[in-house]
Amino acid sequence: VSRSAPAAHNGSVRDRNETPFMAIHVRTGKGSSFQDPLRHHSPEEMAQFINCSLSLHESWMQKCNYEAPPKIYVAADQSSIKEEFVKAHPSLMRTAADVEVLHIERSRPNEIHEMVKAYDNVWAELKILADSTCLIASKSTFSDLGEDFHPTQLFPRRCSVQFNDCDSDRIEEALNAVVC
Questions:
Q1: Per residue in 69-104, pLDDT tens?
Q2: Neighbours of 115 (CB within 10 A)
Q3: Is 22 helix (H, G, I), strand (E, B) or coil?
Q4: Count of C-beta atoms within a 10 Å radius of residue 69
Q5: DSSP string, 69-125
Q6: SS3 content of the chain, % helix, strand, coil (to 5)
Q7: Which residues of the chain fall short of a pLDDT of 70?
């Protein structure tokens, strides 16, 4: 995603060369190099992430009248979750499944094969979350950072919805921050 010459539009910032896209961040609490209390990991919660992202995506498509549907990037602390989401919606969702997951404060360094690459991957996924036009967030500091680092934080809040608080009112509120 290119980030050159942001322009202010109606109280929001949008790059003239930006390709709009959504992002989902799924924090399960169980990665290959760290253990954390389990979070969003049940089949019901995975369904909430999918349903929320599809509902927000559909409303966004209607608001902005896109000819081609914007893609949805899936970030998660388990590669299997990423692959599951993309497999369920291959024409819409994308991910970097081969990213070695690193939790900066919880990973055990002896279990990370390429530490520098793993750190680069963390920063790259955080940038993707921050650059996304709309974000489906989990209850996670990483999701919070993805929300906070978005340029529209300088203005009214950005397009972001918590996966488990994703009713039509929340979606409408989130889309108020989107400039088509």
A1: 899 999 887 788 888 889 999 999 998 877 656 665
A2: 13
A3: strand
A4: 13
A5: PPPEEEEES-HHHHHHHHHHSTTTEE--TTPPP--TTT--GGG-SSHHHHHHHHHHH
A6: 40, 15, 45
A7: 1-17, 29-41, 99-116, 118, 151-156
